DNA sequence: GATAGGGGTTCCAGTAAGTGGAGGGTCAAG
DNA sequence: CTTGACCCTCCACTTACTGGAACCCCTATC
């Protein structure tokens, strides 16, 4: 299977697939013309990667997960531990963003948003917070 | 005022302050020995930047906000519009992360997390989703 | 006067995860 | 035989810094 085909099936851009080969996440064979020749195995791995990335796992997480995916003797605890750590990071990120959102929406609410220069948003940003 | 001093007062790392000069966000004078000499004005700008960045504004947003901050004849509507757009992006990000969190925590819940290889997390990641 | 420390300076390289483009080879159809 | 859709490699760029090397400046101490 050629890269364009795999791209369609996996939903990953061609460029991304080449990049994943570059960093060693997949290792397709090559045809005599130099074209990448993907097997089912690689297609599955790429779909796996796409899904894992869409859940926000880092590439290094993906690498570890893929190794576990390949390893028939894995312990599910190892997978769960990676997922749990990632979940915590997501929750931390959400909290941070929610704090930003709350502050910002409060400031926006205060701002008249007209032709006048007075602006609580700028006033807040310009104030020292210690 | 030297850079270390400004760093302490603004809370920004020295490296970051130099970087902000590099990209034209602040323009401190120079002493005869080549040291940056910051005035009150720059200190305020740097504090402004730190605060704006902590609310998640991009550097380019900060550049625009700083220009409005400097402009006594600004319209608060311009500030509000930047802030509103940013707020929307934050909300989009939060939604995305919440979706990840929900999927992931569901999968984690399903996974036994023991020595056995069976793992709903890997199973889900490996499945094609169309 | 030499030296040690704690400032400061510049410039180069690297981070995460791709994306865009240049320049060029390959293949099937008309 | 040419056209258009593929494919290839390699390089540069993105965001917002961060780390490090190599070097200068200032003050205090031996």
The profile of the biggest β sheet of chain A is:
2 strands, antiparallel
- Tell me the strand order in the biggest sheet of chain A: 1-2
The total tally of domains of chain A equals 2
End-to-end Cα distance of chain A: 60 Å
Spell the H/E element sequence of chain A: HHEEHHHH
Quaternary: homodimer
Beta percentage of chain A is under 5%
Task: Give me the secondary-structure category of chain A.
Answer: mainly alpha
Concise synopsis of the structure shown:
The structure is a homodimer of 130-residue chains. With 130 residues, chain A is mainly α.
Q: What features would you describe in this structure?
A:
- The structure is a homodimer of 130-residue chains.
- Chain A is mainly alpha-helical and 130 residues long.
- Chain A has two domains: 1-55, Multidrug-efflux Transporter Regulator, Chain: A, Domain 2, CATH 1.10.1660; 75-130.
- In chain A, 66% of the residues lie in helices and 3% in strands.
- In chain A, strands 1-2 form a two-stranded antiparallel ribbon.
- In chain A, β1 (29-30) and β2 (36-37) form a beta hairpin.
- At the A-B interface, α3, α4, α5 and α6 of A face α3, α4, α5 and α6 of B.
- Chain A binds a DNA duplex (30 and 30 nucleotides) through α2.
């Amino acid at each position: 299977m050629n890269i364009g085909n795999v791209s369609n099936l996996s939903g990953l851009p061609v460029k991304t697939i080449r990049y994943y080969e570059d960093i060693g996440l997949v290792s397709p064979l090559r045809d005599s013309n130099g074209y990448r020749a993907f097997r089912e195995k690689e297609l599955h791995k790429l779909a796996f990667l796409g899904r894992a990335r869409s859940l926000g796992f880092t590439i290094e997480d993906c690498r570890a997960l893929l190794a576990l995916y390949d390893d028939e003797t894995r312990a599910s605890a190892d997978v769960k531990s990676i997922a749990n750590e990632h979940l915590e990071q997501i929750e931390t990120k959400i909290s941070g963003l929610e704090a930003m959102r709350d502050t910002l929406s409060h400031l926006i609410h205060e701002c008249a948003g007209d032709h006048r220069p007075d602006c609580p948003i700028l006033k807040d940003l310009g104030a020292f917070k210690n």
